[in-house]
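Subject: Interface between my chains keeps coming out wrong

I've been trying for a while to get a sensible model of this assembly. When I model each chain on its own everything looks fine, but I need the whole thing in one frame so I can look at the contacts. Pasting all components below, labels as-is. Any help appreciated, I'm running out of ideas.
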Amino acid sequence: MLRISRRAGERIMLGDDTIIEVLEVRGQTVRIGIDAPRAVPVYREEIWIEVKRENQAAAEAAAASGDLPDFPAKPPR
Amino acid sequence: MSLTIESSRFGRVEIEPETVLEFPEGLIGLGGSRYALLGNAPDAPFLWLQSLEDPSLALPVTNPHRFFQGFAVEVVDEDAERLGFDGASAMDVYVTVRAAPALEDFTANLKAPILVRAGQAYQVINQAPGCDLRAPLFAAPDGDTAAQGSDSAC
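Reply #2:
Try treating it as a single job with all components included. I did that and got this:
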């Protein structure tokens, strides 16, 4: 992994189109600004991991189970 | 022009063009760019997202409004812009379902719904409060509404 030291207000360019800026450093927290092209989704890693796992789990649980019954949906709560 | 695939789950399936969804960004962490939305009937409680690139990949999905009254999707401005949200045109919403041997263990992912418009689909992170990654679909009738905060959208 590339390691770069930056101070608040300094930026990193990913290619020509993506800017990552250190906005503020306070104690253990760093606030970061990201300016990426529209087509690039940005996720917090922990949420990305959770959703990735859940997508995989949904696919695996379905593969492991037999037919999903066409049971009637429960009335809305 | 219709397309025929050999799905691990469904065997040989003829894919009608109007059931094909393009996922420009894939499903989060799972990738894939083209899926077909398959169902026994338009009003079936569960539909399937069958990958057109990986015959062994199929995920059950459902319409969250059917199970979760007051379900809402809120996305960050960047997502809204990327998806071309204008607030006016309707989008279909689906959530992935984690199946289980017992019905009461079925869950739906309200945290990362799939928004569909005009054949384009995006899985987004839902910012609405109280939207769980694993929300029980068939929870016990009592207790569960009480557990939800009043500001919960899900």
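Reply #3:
Confirming on my end. DSSP finds one helix and three strands in chain A.
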